[in-house]
Amino acid sequence: MTQIWSVALITFKEGIKSRVLFGIFIIALLLFAATTVVITLFMRDIVKVAVDLSLSTVSFAGLLALLFIGVNLFGKDLDKRTIYMVISRPVSRAQYLVGKFFGIILLIFVVTTFLGALSTIPVIMGKRFYYYTEVRFDWWIFLIAVLYIFIKLAIVSSIITLFASFTSNSFIALVLSLVTYIIGQSTESVRLLLVSTVEKIEVSPALSYMVDIAYYIFPNMAAFDLKTQAAHGLAIGPVYMIWTILYAIFYMTIAVAVGTLAFRRREFP
Amino acid sequence: MRFLIIAASLIFFACIGNAFVITRISSERDMLRQREGIGIVIPAAVAKIAALEFKGIFADIIFARTMTYYGGKVIRKEKLTEDEWNWIYRNADLATDMDPYFLDPYYMGAMNLAWEAGKVKEANILLEKASRYRDWDWTLFFYLGFNYFYFLQDNEKAAYYLMEGAKRPGSIALLPTLAARLAYQGKKTENSIIFLQAILTKTEDKSLRWIYERRLNALKAILFLERAVAIYQDRFKKQPTNIDELIAKGILSEIPQDPYGGKFYLDKDGSIKTTSELR
Which candidate, A75, A85, A31, places its Cα nearest to that of A53? Predict the structure, then answer.
């Protein structure tokens, strides 16, 4: 455990020092500033637009941080050959990979907490600027939505860990993770589209079978997207939270475990 | 040193050139955009998949774009064509498919589509969708009730929606009374006035207030004339042949102005009409 923790801490420190993070924060700040201007274009649902924009900014910036820093944190050790230093120490390969994973989670936690705190500013401004009495909003649901952004990013971290464990190049890991994220975001919508008879599209059984397989293989990211609920103050039941958090834990466990298996057998250049 | 001077002057002139050119570009773009007109509307099924986790923002952008287009037309004092209104309706529909709780497109549907485009059917489709999702919001039921009562003359449905609205938290105390009044046929003008006054208490937007106030003033004038006709009937036991008779017999001192620029007249069935048809 101490080995995992020390790898995690080193990974975290390395990530937080990254200059890319600074750039991502500037992008996020600009987006938050833009939000306060953009919300004035709307008529009544100003708080909703503010919540939409600020939560999307948190999610987007977190994703950027993961894809640019997270992937690199794996790649660097291999590219710069510093991996030999680590492997020669009493740290097993599995411990190394799990430690890296937790380090990235720690980094993402700090990033989401920081951005989540910043994201309240446009919402508070929106509420003060114009609050229509029929608008529903609840800070608790907003908080839960931020927590779910963190969970979603944690799943993406596990996918990055998986791909980084066997790809030879960090760019390939990045592309694969990005594609997985995109598929994971859309499987639920595609599945709903195929099921709905309203759209009047003829679907071949093979296609719907493939979509079903994709639904079970790729993470269902849509389950962690609670921006609409946060924007309109729609209640989220405890049962939903229990199942989704369990799903996230199971999925991350599978991804990291498969990653360690692949990493153990890996040959270093 | 020479290099520095050359580089600095290059930057200087390029900046001036840039500033000049960008103003030209913005005017050229304006012309190009005007010719572009409205665009296609993405099918909701495709948009839902393509928007990934950013469906909310997508809805915001579509709606903002629609409003900007509409606003530009209003500023240039151009009338929207039938196609453009359809485009606006389909965009509002798409935005609310992406985020079915988004109030603004529904609100715009209730107001602009019904009042300006005369698309009451489309406005009601949007509002009915709204009432399925935003089931805590009494105002949507209220607007629906109004559309059914005022534009479609369906008092039964109007009363139903008003009662539904009255069950929601925070609704104005007037709703049950209004619904009860609608059960009686007739008194349309009076009921419309009460309705509009209630809507006005919830409206802050200046241009919308203007639309409502103009209609309210016209209806008040009609009510005023209707009462004068009733007095005439009471006194002379017959219908006046035209509106000027009300002045001739000393019931009115003058005919009120139609805020829509038309002239009030007495229809064959004894009701007050105006040549502007309130448009």
Answer: A31
